[in-house]
């Protein structure tokens, strides 16, 4: 029996008694309540979410067209779109995105795997906590950018230091959140699992790890955001390809339009991977009712 079944099968005594006394059978399924404000909203939510970016771009265009924002300081939206079209037509932008995505996902896979493994070891056993938690707490306070000279000495100036920097940056958010999720599992669920006859491994598999999943997904979202930040720094290490390489070249020639294109690409890549994590949350956490806003 998993944590989902335990959560769905539990009913408070008063509710159970009232359900038993009614004409119909008692229902154990959870009912998701929709706020009255959400039911009465007429404007589609996707339209409300896009209002902010559209207004921001409109203000940017207005400031550029009126001369309040000089082109030497920041190119206008029209110039940025024209530069993006040229980069797409030449294939430079697509190739740079593929290279940057490969670096970010490889570093995240390595760092995330290490962070989750250490969090499980530290969260499940006191010996693991004594051996792992203190070094991790010390290392996470060291600025990752300060490690770039050491990474260059250890791994050279190729792809390895870039991936290592991303791995170091993404390991700690996942470690902290998974560890907190494991230690934050409701003790009553543990006792319910023991009452149902689950073994130690059964408790870990069906109760503790699923209970820590919400925190793990939060940590994944943090790690994805930090992965892009680390990627920007990593692609300054003798990069010959990638979005950071395009940005570095544009900086040398004061091409603010290309720099803005690269920044927008970083933003959309981050938004895309965040959307993937949100989808995973809806799939794996469908058993957990949560507040959706008033």
UniProtKB/TrEMBL annotation:
Disordered, as annotated region: 1-26
Alphabetical GO biological process terms: alkanesulfonate transmembrane transport
GO cellular component, one term: plasma membrane
Name of one Pfam family that matches: BPD_transp_1
Major location category of this protein: membrane
Alphabetic keyword roster: Cell membrane, Membrane, Transmembrane, Transmembrane helix, Transport
Every ABC transmembrane type-1 domain range: 93-277
Keyword Transmembrane helix: yes
Subcellular location: Cell membrane
InterPro entries: MetI-like (IPR000515), MetI-like_sf (IPR035906)
CDD domains: TM_PBP2
Membrane topology (UniProt): Multi-pass membrane protein
Record field: transmembrane: 95-121, 141-157, 163-182, 226-246, 258-277
Assigned protein family: Belongs to the binding-protein-dependent transport system permease family.
Function in brief: Probably part of an ABC transporter complex. Probably responsible for the translocation of the substrate across the membrane.
Protein known as: ABC transporter permease subunit
């Amino acid at each position: 029996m998993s944590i989902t079944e335990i959560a769905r099968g539990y009913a408070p005594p008063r509710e159970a008694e009232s359900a038993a006394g009614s004409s119909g059978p008692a229902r154990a399924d959870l009912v998701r309540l929709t706020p009255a404000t959400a039911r009465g909203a007429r404007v589609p939510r996707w339209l409300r979410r896009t209002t902010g970016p559209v207004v921001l771009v409109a203000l940017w265009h207005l400031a550029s067209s009126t001369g309040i924002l000089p082109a030497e300081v920041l190119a206008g939206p029209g110039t940025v779109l024209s530069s993006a079209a040229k980069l797409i037509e030449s294939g430079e932008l697509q190739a740079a995105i593929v290279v940057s995505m490969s670096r970010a996902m490889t570093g995240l896979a390595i760092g995330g795997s290490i962070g989750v493994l250490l969090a499980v070891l530290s969260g499940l056993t006191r010996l693991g906590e004594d051996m792992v938690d203190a070094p991790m707490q010390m290392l996470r306070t060291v600025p990752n950018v300060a490690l770039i000279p050491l990474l260059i000495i250890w791994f050279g100036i190729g792809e390895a230091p870039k991936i290592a920097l991303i791995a170091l940056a993404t390991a700690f958010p996942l470690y902290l959140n998974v560890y907190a999720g494991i230690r934050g599992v409701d003790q009553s669920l543990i006792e319910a699992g023991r009452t149902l006859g689950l073994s130690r491994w059964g408790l870990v598999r069906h109760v503790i790890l699923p209970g820590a999943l919400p925190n793990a997904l939060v940590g994944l979202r943090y790690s994805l955001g930090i992965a892009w930040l680390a990627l920007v720094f990593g692609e300054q290490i003798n990069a010959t390809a990638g979005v950071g390489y395009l940005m570095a070249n544009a900086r040398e020639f004061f091409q603010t339009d290309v720099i803005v294109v690269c920044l927008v690409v970083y933003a959309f890549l981050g938004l895309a991977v965040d959307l993937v994590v949100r989808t995973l949350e809806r799939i794996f956490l469908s058993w957990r009712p949560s507040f959706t806003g008033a």
